């Protein structure tokens, strides 16, 4: 039996892993237990399943299809602002869904900018609610993700291949056949699977832009079973359906294993000699311009419409903002307490598969399913509304865990691999190793992970909707309530506040991690 | 005195055997083809690999089960001998106290050690702000402060130019001389071995052979070593 000397212990990470597994699997067990007594699902429930799959499939297909020309253009054009545009494509990750929805409404809604334009030439306004609205919002979020994933594939084609192709005099068509199509056959299915999986668990988008029997996702149906009928058994049955859907989709997405999408090096432009014809240039600039416009217009709309409401926000909005900040802080603290020890354990262990697997559980279950499970467990014991904030913080942390581990594990591996032996040979204790080596070497990654966790939690509209009563709200939930009361100006102002706070907490953590950090 | 008693180190299908001893104060070069297990041997002595069989003694005490930091050993690796985010003084100070809670008197010792290796005035620099040779000197200052009686070198100067490498090896020999430390160093260059070692261990064909005088080994090399060094 080989015992390797190690500068740290894997035990805290293993304990954290067990806690995560118990929490998630415990919630699932509660759901299954409660679902057993159920009488079965009605046609409306199967309609929800059908809608969920259709909208996720459409969203993934449209996102990837539109991303192809954009990624291709970004791959072969160099221009000032290219790096900024690619960075902007990472932003939807921390953009609160409700903010984006308000922005999209302002542009594409019934009384939005485009409808106003259509009205000027005598055409009827756009209708955004329903399937196409849901798909539109999902494309808004996932077109950038698909673009980044596919662009990564383009960047991974070695520069030498393009040089060789140029030397052979290969035109755009030949390059497509020789280099680009084989690459896309590898990357596009992965992008499709990831986006499909993400859209399956869509709640906030369906809540705001869908609804009604024809546009209800399973996630939304769970919420409605709670809020409208208080039918825990039906919520549990729907949760079982959702578990099957997301579990299958997550397995599919993992099989189509791929890069992480917010990876580094995307701002490197490879010198290209092909595609110099003016029609191709025009097409590329059109793709880049339209994509930028599609992403920037809704954000601009939020800024424009929100600025007016920002100075007349009701007090309830400020209280909700405070709650959101508290939840974000708690969620970030929980994430770091779980993810850091887990990352260390993965770096130390020879067979860390099950720790990594437990970390990915958050991807295979949806927030509302965990929320349902938590509700079933808590309801007989305490008032769920009283626990709304801590439960939300905890679930948000579990949802951020897969991303946190993706950021922390590679760095933890590198730090322990590079400096573990040296620390051991110096007889450095575990505490000293954490203080003198691990913390300073991992600070940028810890800051980035904390920033993501905080921003995701700030913008989350999911579990809180299950647990909250009229007394308590987070900022996204408060915005939703304002929208429901048709107080659009206050909603827009609150959305601008939420956007600013989300970006601010991300920036503070990320910046704090990088400050004075050594390369 | 370092004694390896029936030592076997296993790594996958590969086994390395060693059964010999080295007198205190000796300077031993470890020679052999790439992949023969030179680093493996040093790592086992330093405690980074478990023994499949046998025991390791220092001055009669069995150290085979001690943690690396508890052994009477300081080791310099091929790379990563300094923490890039700590200053030169902090890196050296780790040799005195691995949690860096040093008394003012100890910081004085650190300054002295840095002066001894020629780094006076560079105490507050980060490793990235030093030349390759200065980085090696900083690591040597820490070794000096560790004050361990056995020093293992796994080619820490391999990335330096030839002249700088010799300068460092001479400094190591000097420091070992001053402190009376025993030195074991992996070497790819017979000239290095002749320059500062008095004995040599040949590692080849799954065995680390009993140390012999350097000149005897290099002047009449056994077949495995001859193949490695090349004819003529």
TrEMBL record, chain A:
InterPro entries: MetI-like (IPR000515), MetI-like_sf (IPR035906). SUPFAM superfamilies: MetI-like. It is found in: Cell membrane. PROSITE patterns: ABC_TM1 (PS50928). It is a multi-pass membrane protein. One of its GO terms (cellular component) is plasma membrane. Residues 49-253, 321-509 form the ABC transmembrane type-1 domain. It comes from the Bacteria. Keywords: Cell membrane, Membrane, Transmembrane, Transmembrane helix, Transport. The chain crosses the membrane at residues 12-33, 53-71, 83-108, 128-151, 191-212, 232-254, 285-313, 325-348, 360-381, 387-409, 446-468, 488-509. GO terms for biological process: transmembrane transport. This is Thiamine/thiamine pyrophosphate ABC transporter permease ThiP. The gene is thiP.
TrEMBL record, chain B:
Gene3D superfamilies: P-loop containing nucleotide triphosphate hydrolases. Residues 2-230 form the ABC transporter domain. It comes from the Bacteria. Pfam families: ABC_tran (PF00005). SUPFAM superfamilies: P-loop containing nucleoside triphosphate hydrolases (SSF52540). InterPro entries: AAA+_ATPase, ABC_SmlMolc_Importer, ABC_transporter-like_ATP-bd, ABC_transporter-like_CS, P-loop_NTPase. One of its GO terms (molecular function) is ATP binding. Keywords: ATP-binding, Cell inner membrane, Cell membrane, Membrane, Nucleotide-binding, Translocase, Transport. This is Thiamine import ATP-binding protein ThiQ.
